[in-house]
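Sorry, can you check?
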Amino acid sequence: MSPAFGAMEVEHYSKGVLLEPFVHQVGGHSCVLRFNDKTICKPLIQREHQFYETLPTEMRKFTPQYEGVVSVSFEEDEDGNLCLIAYPLNGDHDNLENLDNSDCEPKSKLLRWTNKKTMLLENEKISKEWVRQHRKEEKMKSHKLEEEFEWLKKSEVLYYTVEKKGNISSQFKHHNPWSMKCHQQQLQRMKENAKHRNQYKFILLENLTSRYEVPCVLDLKMGTRQHGDDASEEKKANQIRKCQQSTSAVIGVRVCGMQVYQAGTGQLMFMNKYHGRKLSVQGFKEALYQFFHNGKYLRRELFESVIKKLTELKSVLEKQESYRFYSSSLLIIYDGKERQEVAVDSDPEDLEDLSEESSDESAGAYAYKPTASTVDVRMIDFAHTTCKYYGEDSVVHEGQDTGYVFGLQNLIDIIKEIRDESSE
């Protein structure tokens, strides 16, 4: 296992690393934070930590890489802004070189999230002096953005138009309502506990979106059962009700969150778990179709890779004796950035001057093959996972997690249906 911190200058290390919201979080209730480009962190839950430290070798390619544990505390400045800071755990000082932290910026240049309801970001290009000079103007803007943010939190499906100027990926920062909501709640919890506690353990995990310029992320809640063995009767009843009222009970999978870039309109589409719970089986299928459609055409080149990886994961889980992945999610991720398309029977050099119209999928005289696109399939969220190797668990299950496997098979079948129907 690689230790928590690494490759930092002594001065930077002594100050810790300022954590940012992880803007590609589309589901879940636990706050996920960005440590650096390739690493995220989330509050340590003992059961999940135990899973990552003991998971079977064959499952590692289907989970984020575990990279250690850090201590997280928060500081509050004179304006009431809370900053979450990550520090190495005591005793980790001798092993700091293994985790790449070269892209972390000095604390003064990083974004700082306020715990005020406005959830505004201090723009990294604006000095504190400028902010103070324009305090009255900023307060007016704050009030307007506060109303906008409250609307964002209530919107189950949201379309946000990306400005033509600037890098698309950089504009995700301010407009993922789910990550904003989770971050705000985490700050509030930590502030309320400040008198009793200001040190929290977080685990470091691989950032699965780091390889993509414009990550399209689908978060699926897997299985026919969501409550853990240790759930209270109230929690158990609540989770059973959610499963019965959603596609979880019928097909063993439901939409927990979605983020898709629509190249056709230049919009970002966000779907949250509340909308996902309302979907019928047909609605779930339509949501999957929407996830693989970029507003111009269906990303058919992704289907075979997704199906192959889901099938392989299903085979792996069928062999896992006594594991139960209650309330775990499955992520499907691909790049929304449009790829160059190549004519199947043509020299690529001859296609340079083709018009947009002739390269469209509707151009009957040509058959176009999209260049290879990577797609990732990973399991996440193991706070309620159990297996016979966890000695303290009172309940020991036998055989495979049939509810999860059932959901995987139905997911595979539905994606195959979409693939086949789109090729007719």
The first strand starts at residue 17 and ends at 18.
